[in-house]
Task: inverse folding
């Protein structure tokens, strides 16, 4: 059964951790739902781990809608959050139009946008228009250039204080949850204790109300860059390569396909076609 926003928020209040992973396609979403994940994020990390861009910046609305649709088909009974890509929510009207696409066409349950105090009016506008919004603060990959790269945020007074005020602002604006990315664990713990809405951490320590990871990182499928906060539970990149190598070798050695993988027919039928008059 799909969890409602209220149920997710109740879980956090009662100390039950919320699980979230990204998915971008039908089979992964299907498997995550079968594994009883609480929520799925169609992250714009899609751009890097699936589409091969060098950042999330080039990701388009059409790409997000396309992949959100696939995820929804794979996980009809899971709470799905879809990312608003870079520069798709600069004005309230643009944010509403694009969020509407993710919800009406992609069938997402909520949208996520990167930003704190500055984006609070957009979060409020979307919320008033019936769009559930997840905020994302701390390290915000879409604007990582401004932040000095993919670096931990909130280590000094100014930056920690900004993140704290961002958290307060997005909650006040109506966000249903907030993702805290790459911030010191003690800061995330204090923010979590102060907020009513659930905090979902990624590189933000164990005290958050829930955790999210990019599924390709967890499965060891994306080898270009592995952040410190990732735990690789599998090494699928290696498994895939060795399976492909074995397949290639067996084809070259005529070991695959075997009769077990082939179809047979009556010899008489075959002979009657190939018999010359
Ligand atoms: O795009 C994404 O996958 C994300 C997560 C890293 C939280 O925003």
Result:
């Amino acid at each position: 059964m799909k969890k409602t926003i209220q149920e997710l928020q109740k879980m956090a209040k009662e100390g039950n951790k919320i699980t979230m992973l990204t998915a971008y396609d039908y089979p992964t979403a299907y498997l995550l739902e079968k594994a009883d994940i609480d929520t799925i994020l169609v992250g714009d990390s899609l751009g890097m781990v699936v589409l091969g861009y060098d950042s999330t910046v080039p990701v388009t609305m059409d790409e997000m809608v396309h992949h959100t649709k696939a995820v929804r088909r794979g996980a009809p009974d899971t709470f799905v959050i879809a990312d608003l890509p870079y520069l798709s929510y600069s004005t309230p009207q643009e944010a509403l139009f694009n969020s509407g696409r993710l919800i009406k066409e992609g069938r997402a349950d909520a949208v996520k946008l990167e930003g704190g105090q500055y984006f609070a009016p957009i979060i409020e506008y979307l919320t008033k228009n019936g769009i559930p919004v997840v905020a994302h603060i701390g390290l915000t990959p879409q604007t990582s250039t401004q932040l000095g790269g993919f670096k931990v945020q909130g280590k000094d007074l100014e930056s920690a204080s900004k993140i704290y005020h961002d958290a307060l602002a997005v909650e006040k604006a109506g966000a249903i949850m907030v993702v805290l990315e790459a911030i010191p664990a003690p800061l995330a713990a204090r923010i979590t204790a102060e907020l009513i809405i659930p905090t979902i951490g990624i590189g933000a320590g164990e005290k958050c109300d829930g955790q999210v990871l990019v599924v390709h990182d967890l499965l060891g499928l994306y080898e270009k860059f592995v952040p410190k906060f990732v735990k690789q539970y599998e090494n699928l990149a290696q498994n895939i390569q060795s399976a492909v190598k074995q397949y290639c070798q067996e084809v070259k050695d005529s070991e695959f396909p075997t009769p077990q993988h082939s179809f047979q027919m009556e010899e008489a039928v075959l002979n009657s076609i190939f018999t010359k008059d």
Remarks:
- The chain has a mean pLDDT of 96.
- The chain has eleven helices and eight strands.
- Residues 22, 41, 43-45, 83, 136, 179, 181, 202, 212, 214 surround 3-methyl-2-oxobutanoic acid (CB under 6 Å).
